[in-house]
Design a protein that fits this description.
Blueprint (H helix, E strand, L loop, with lengths): L6 H8 L3 H9 L6 H14 L20 E7 H5 L4 H14 L3 E7 L1 H6 L4 H4 L5 E5 L4 H9 L4 E4 L9 E5 L1 H14 L5 E4 L6 H16 L9 E2 L6 H9 L7 E4 L2 H13 L9 E6 L2 H5 L5 E5 L1 H17 L7 E4 L1 E4 L10
Parallel strand pairs: 1-2, 1-3, 3-4, 4-5, 5-11, 6-7, 6-8, 8-9, 9-10
Antiparallel strand pairs: 10-12
């Protein structure tokens, strides 16, 4: 008796998943045109009986309501001035395409136990946007389900997925270059680089700028493990034997805290010390004086994340991509010429 050929036989022949074979033969999005043609040819060769799928493989928002999930940690969702704006942009873009958005906050208990949301476990969504950092193992588990996923403002060498990111290195380079062009040669860095790859990349941009302009690094001015709280900043700044003429702060919150400390300690900004930071959040605008910063187009962030996920849904087998979004220097009152 002749063995009946199954989708699994085709999958084994091509060394791909059974799910990819099913998507190819039923005309669903999620595989490339090359893979689809290969699967169809192998099916004919092995004698698998199927009805050729309708040749309409490109994703079309008019013909299908795509269900997208947006997940993030409780902490990320609490940062309304940054991730909140990205979320609103994502929601706006998905609504403009008449698609559906499901939102799930992931608490630390779920992250530690690797407990995935039900809509991922039962495959009821077509794609997942992962906002900021959760946990590498947790994100890997999401990706292992086969549901297309795009990381938003996060990446890691062990995570095989598309990512939409800020060009942190070049942004930090431009911020520090601005200080150098104002005559500053003693430029400090403050931040906690263990929290996020973005912060580590901003430290790299700081080093790139100093190297580019031939400025010697002063390790005493490199505060790379500072918590973002008033006491932590005050202690770190107070212990310095001497203040630099300028500070580059890794984010908006630290820029505000550094600026506040300097003012309370009797320093004049920018006459004695200049301050610049990253992100252009509300605190940059509320500080006195207002802080020079690197602006991130958060609306573009959300839009590109959705666009990339829609592309990924239709091109499941394509190589992973990282998309770097540019930043813009906003010069305000907190930076000025280096004191003589």
């Amino acid at each position: 008796m002749t063995k009946k050929i199954t989708m699994q036989d085709i999958a084994d022949q091509l060394n791909i998943s059974k799910n990819s074979v099913s998507q190819a033969l039923t005309g669903k999005a999620g595989v490339s045109e090359k893979t689809r043609s290969l699967v169809e040819a192998t099916a004919r060769e092995l004698g698998y009986e199927y009805l050729p799928a309708r040749k309409n493989y490109q994703y079309n928002t008019d013909s299908k309501n795509v269900k997208i999930a947006l997940i993030a940690s409780d902490y990320a969702f609490s940062l309304k001035s940054f991730f909140g704006e990205i979320y609103l942009s994502i929601e706006k873009e998905i609504a403009s395409q008449n698609n559906s958005l499901m939102i799930q906050s992931i608490n630390q208990a779920a992250i530690q136990s690797l407990e995935l949301p039900a809509f991922i476990l039962n495959g009821s969504v077509d794609g997942v946007l992962i906002l900021s950092h959760l946990n590498t193992e947790y994100i890997q588990k999401i990706i292992s389900t086969g549901i297309p996923a795009v990381l938003v403002d996060h990446h890691h060498p062990h995570i095989k997925a598309d990512a939409v990111l800020t060009n942190n290195r070049f942004g930090a380079f431009l911020a520090v270059e601005h200080l150098v062009q104002l005559g500053h040669r003693e430029i400090g860095f403050i931040g906690n680089i263990s929290i996020s790859p973005s912060y580590y990349e901003r430290l790299e941009g700081y080093h790139l700028a100093l190297n580019h302009y031939g400025i010697k690094h002063n390790e005493a001015l490199l505060l790379s493990d500072i918590e973002e709280d008033e006491d932590g900043v005050r202690k770190a700044m107070h212990q310095l034997p001497k203040q630099p003429t300028a500070w580059f702060c890794v984010n908006d919150g630290l820029g505000f805290l550094v600026s506040s400390y300097l003012v309370h300690a009797g320093y004049k900004i920018p006459e004695q010390i200049s301050v610049s930071n990253f992100d252009n959040g509300q605190l940059s605008k509320l500080a006195t004086p207002k802080i020079t910063t690197m602006d991130i187009d958060l609306e573009l962030f959300g839009k590109r994340a959705v666009e990339q996920l829609m592309w990924r849904i239709s091109n499941k087998d394509a190589a992973n991509q990282e998309i770097l979004l540019p930043t813009t220097l906003l010069v305000r009152e907190s930076t000025g010429p280096a004191p003589n």
